[in-house]
Structures are given as C-alpha cells and as structure tokens.
Amino acid sequence: MADITSIFNNPLYTVQPKTTGTGNNKIDKEAFLKLLTAQLKYQDPLNPLDNTQFVGQLATFSALEQIINIGDTLNSFISTKTKEDALLVGATLIDKTITTTSSEEFTVKGISYQDGKLKIDVGSKTISLDEIQGIKS
C-alpha cells in the first residue's frame, strides 16, 4: 500500500501547494484530491488500500471542503455586513452640513459605496468619510 510519503517522493507526481498572499504554503482541496488520486494510482495492487482508510480519507476530504465553504460564506457575510454598516452611517449624514478637514462646508446630498469605501456626495464633488472633520444638523 502506498502511503503519503511515497507519493511525495515519487518523481512522476509532485504537488505544488497553493500559496496565499501572506507567503504561507497551504494545500487546497484540488491538491488534496490529486494527492488522494495519486495514492490510489500508485498503491500496491497485491496489497490495496484498506477500505476503512479510504473511507476515512474521503471523509477528511468532505470535511475539508465543508470547512472551506464555511470560510467562504463567512467572508461573504463580513463583506456584506461592512457595506451595510457603512451605508447606514452614511444615511445619517444626508441633508446635514459637514465640515471637511480643509475647513470647507457642504450639505450632504447622497452617499454611495465604491471600492470598499463610503463616498459622500456633496453636489459639486464626492468626498470620503475620513475627510469629514465635523457634522452640523
């Protein structure tokens, strides 16, 4: 029976781990499936993989996929929640007079959410939230 070590040492098959933006090497679900397939391909035909081990590895793969899906769902939720929070904050500014960091005064006409940031429409231009120094009713 082929084990994980023999698959990594086989010159016919190499796994290139997925690299994240932080530089850490992680194995993704596609690499895991390739690894499992290679293990089956290179196993000893006279001593095949034990059914219990095979089912355990499939269960591990299924759990890995579910964890990845949960992570993706949480990231999507956080992104949506951040946008909703920003729009709620911005909505409270409509029809109020704001003072910018350059000491200009504007009445807020509307808001938008662009490139992950809240934009304040004051008619003549659009400013970002961090440019606001003060708010008047």
Report on this structure.
This protein is rod-shaped. It is built from 3 helices and 8 strands; from the N terminus they run αββααββββββ. The strands form 3 sheets. It has a 3-stranded antiparallel beta sheet, with no helix packed on it. A 3-stranded antiparallel beta sheet has the order 5-6-7. With 137 residues, the protein is α+β, with helices and mostly antiparallel strands.
Summarize the structure.
This protein is of the alpha+beta class. It is 44% helix and 21% strand. The longest helix is centred in the middle third of the chain and has 41 residues, at 51-91.
Keywords:
three-stranded antiparallel β-sheet, disordered N terminus, 3 helices, 137 residues, alpha+beta, rod-shaped, 8 strands, single chain
SSE arrangement:
Elements: H1 4-9, E1 18-19, E2 25-26, H2 29-41, H3 51-91, E3 97-100, E4 105-107, E5 110-114, E6 117-121, E7 126-128, E8 132-136
Antiparallel strand pairs: 1-2, 3-4, 3-8, 5-6, 6-7
**First and last CA, distance:** 76 Å
**SSE sequence, one letter per element:** HEEHHEEEEEE
Label the structural class: alpha+beta
According to DSSP, the number of beta strands is 8
Question: What best-fitting shape do the alpha-carbon axes yield?
Answer: rod-shaped
**Fraction in beta strands:** 15-25%
Q: State the share of residues found in helices, binned by percent.
A: 40-55%
